[in-house]
Amino acid sequence: MISGTTEKGPIAGIALACAGYACFALQDAMVKWLVASYEVPEILFMRSLVIVVVAGVLVRYRRHPSIFQSPYRGTVVLRAALMLIAWLLFYNAARHLGLAELTTLYFSAPIIVMVLSIFILKEKIGAGRWIACIVGFIGVMIAANPSHSPNLLPALMCVVAGFCWAWSTILIRLVSRSETTLTQMYATSLLFGLACALSFPWIWKTPDASGWALMLGLGVIATIGQFLLYEGFRHAPASTLAPIEYSGLVWAFVYGYLIWAEIPAANVFIGALLIIASSLLLVLWERRLEGARKKSAQY
């Protein structure tokens, strides 16, 4: 078993989470490309299949104990269900909402993570973390700049998706106290993929060559992203990493330019600067706290 804390501390967790969210932003870009031709459950099944194969091989090679015999197995099932609901709602809402509306609504998730971490994980939320999270959310609002109120049902779908993702994030931290990253990835994706496969009689469409390549590539990117994010939550509290999720918006702008030659407006750059500033503020805050703890331990 691997404990929930390590010597590397929250700075390592922040770095790992940043890299993980960069992968997830690329994943979203690939799904955006695929969803025009394929249904969401089929795309998510292929994503899960790659994760199951890679994580399963590594779990067997390293002889990690089965997570289905863990006292947290019920939590793993719950997390898989939450992730399934979140992904289905989010990507289906994307069919009806503009990117600005979608982004603004979804990025309520980090705030929810911080609130849930107080009640579920009993974490203490300092002023620095609250300020970083609020500044990041303001940055998202400025960058997204919604021009009109979204449709009620798709908006509700996106907000519920954000809540489910936030709850599943909290559960990562809880399970990471005793279970390895690879076993979590294997079990969650296995349950996730089986649920998606139930819809195949109604939605399956055999991919062409480019479809297969994109779906398999999606699975590889998702595998790397999940591993980095799970490891991040092993090194740092959920509330610490919540504002780092905003960095995914910056990566989304980068991928949008590289793939579709989208040039963000001035408000997007202003919002991105605030998001980056919130992440830097968080790093400085954590370093200050870590220095204070070390100094206190010496006396």
Tell me what the structure shows.
- It is a single chain.
- With 299 residues, this protein is mainly alpha-helical.
- The chain is 77% helix and 0% strand.
- It has helices spanning 9-34, 40-62, 73-93, 99-106, 109-119, 127-144, 152-175, 181-197, 200-203, 209-235, 238-241, 247-260, 266-297.
Query: Helical content, roughly?
Result: over 70%
Please give the alpha-carbon distance between the first and last residues.
33 Å
Spans where pLDDT lies below 50 across 5 or more residues: 1-7
SS element count, helices = 13
Residue-averaged pLDDT, rounded? 75
Topology:
Blueprint: H1 9-34, H2 40-62, H3 73-93, H4 99-106, H5 109-119, H6 127-144, H7 152-175, H8 181-197, H9 200-203, H10 209-235, H11 238-241, H12 247-260, H13 266-297
Helix pairs in contact: 1-10, 1-12, 1-13, 2-8, 2-10, 3-7, 3-8, 4-6, 4-7, 5-7, 6-13, 8-10
